[in-house]
Amino acid sequence: MDWGVGRYETTAEQLLPAGVAVVRSAALKLGERVLDLGCGTGNAALLAAEEGARVTGVDPAQRLLEVARARAASQGTEVQFLPGEAASVPLDDASVDVVLSVFAVIFAPDAGAAAAEMARVLASDGRIVLSAWIPGGAMSEMNGLAAETVRQAVGIPPGPKPFPWHDLDSLSALLAPHGFSVTLEERRHAFTAPSAREFLDQESRNHPLAVTGLAILEQMDQADALRTGMLEILQNGNEERDSFRVTSRYVIGMASR
Fold it and tell me: How far is Cα 98 from Cα 226, in angstroms, rounded to an integer?
């Protein structure tokens, strides 16, 4: 999956409040060394730098790194942005004090490898602060429909269930071997737009997963059917009468040694 496809900037802007919540939960100290893992367009990285941290953002999508660098330059903010993945972070052992990840490391194909890398780059008293979606609700249902439709269309067999980063017992079991204890706090995030249709149109044009999936389905004349199904889910889940709002639940996970 290339997260540089489309314009993830629009999604990142929607998710900025969650980035603020994660950075606040981290309670950063002046001069702390921070890694924003899966930094995307730099939301959390730039917020952490504003708190006086020394920040490195790492992401596999080169285009998003360029966007993040441009944002930092326009704000006069000093952040280092590097290409890399959760299973292969381009930083030295024990070189950071805090790892932040806003809805990013949760997409790592190998949760165990990602956990080992976070533990490796963290100092002995380092901490991890990440956000993870809780399954359920209209957004989760819509994304599930899209993923299943594409999977069936291209004939890919069902894969293993994704790691439940939102679950306390599972996350504790993942990180405990690396010496971490874990706590979770539940939060809520509202996705809004003038209407459900406008929200879906924006996501279809911009979100990397939607752009990639719909491009595949267009070739098979299945894209319109998926759009119809997704719009129905959004309309059924809409919490407003004259506009669009869907609230998704997520957790902020905090792991410390």
Answer: 40
| 251 within domain boundaries | yes
- Structural domain harbouring 77: 8-256
Q: Is 105's pLDDT higher than 80? A: yes
Identity of the residue numbered 222? Q
Tell me, yes or no, whether 87 lies in a domain.
Answer: yes
What's the token pair of residue 23?
């950075």
Phi-psi region of 31 (alpha: psi -120 to 50; beta: other; left: phi over 0): left
The kind and range of the H/E element at 232 are: helix 223-237
What value does the CA radius of gyration of the chain take, rounded to a whole number of Å? 18
Nearest partner of 146 among 234, 59, 63, judged by Cα: 234
- Rounded distance, CA 19 to CA 42, Å? 10
Cβ within 8 Å of residue 170, ≥6 positions away: 163, 164
Query: Which amino acid, residue 199?
Result: F
Query: Is 126 inside any structural domain?
Result: yes
Instruction: Tell me what pLDDT residue 160 has.
Output: 86
Cβ pair 246, 240 in contact under 8 A: no
Which is nearest to 71 in space by CA: 2, 13, 4?
13
pLDDT score, position 164:
98
Strands (E), 69-177: 79-83, 96-102, 122-133
Distance CA 88, CA 71 (A): 25
Closest CA to 103 of 235, 219, 3, 224: 3
Looking up residue 219, the CATH number of its domain turns out to be 3.40.50.150
* CA atoms of 218 and 216, how far apart (whole Å): 6
pLDDT in tens, 29-56: 999 999 999 999 999 999 999 999 999 9
